[in-house]
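Progress note, project year one: complex with zinc ion.
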Amino acid sequence: MAKLYFRYSAMNAGKSTALLQVAHNYEEQGQSVHLYTAAIDHRYGVGKVTSRLGPQREAAVFDSQFNFFKEAPQVNCVLVDEAQFLTPEQVRQLHQLAHVRGVPVICYGIRSDFLGEPFPGSTYLLALSDTIEELKNICTCGKKATMNIRVDTSGKRMKSGEQIDIGGNERYQHVCGRCFYSA
Ligand SMILES: [Zn+2]
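Model obtained:
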């Protein structure tokens, strides 16, 4: 039975690398995949899933108007990067894609923004996903990183701003809860 998966982590935990590995594993078995990434993510050019370790491949982009249930192809697995940018309605569509159309869906994303506020898409993924898994990485202090902070171009932590601001990975740091409140 097809399921909806949410694999979450703090920033810089290798989510895109993990996604590309899963895509490779499916294709190595002769199975088809379809990749999506957020249209608002311009870090590496629209329509690419890029691992910081080097590999990258093209992906279809979704904006807030895209309908996954109606438009996603009938493949062996749909993979969604930057899944925090899904709308709640799109998470519902992906849930139906798995359970009504029978297409497994694996979403990769972060849970909360640089102020500790949840992304609406991630909130719905946590509510509806059949399987929720954490990809772990650690804070500079050695504890597990669960939060994200954003820094400005001079490296100073930002305490206000828009939730969605794709400024490149170097603008974000992953920290533990303790460091989030003390940094
Ligand atoms: Zn820490």
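The chain is about 25% helix and 20% strand.
Residues 139, 141, 143, 175-176, 178-179 surround zinc ion (CB under 6 Å).
No further modelling is planned for this target in the current period.
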